[in-house]
Amino acid sequence: xxxxxxxxxxxxxxxxxxxxxxxxxxxxxxxxxxxxxxxxxxxxxxxxxxxxxxxxxxxxxxxxxxxxxxxxxxxxxxxxxxxxxxxxxxxxxxxxxxxxxxxxxxxxxxxxxxx
Length: 115
Description:
The protein is mainly β.
């Protein structure tokens, strides 16, 4: 049975930090390339960052480059997104998604950046 446990979201002031976690079970985490997506109110879903299965190389969308860091811990079946210097435009529901032979997605976690 595939399960996701996502945590770390919430309300933070501009300039603050949050660390999202996405822990999975029921499939082989380590063989999947993982992506964090987000969907802001009234906007389309957009990718935020991904990390490869093979060499753990990473890529970020321009708007988060230098502020967000994606990492993975294959021993813990967990994906992370460290988000620093958060801005109001980062407000969204964030989703983790693993792509391999099949694609698996979490339900999402709310991040709100507001003073």
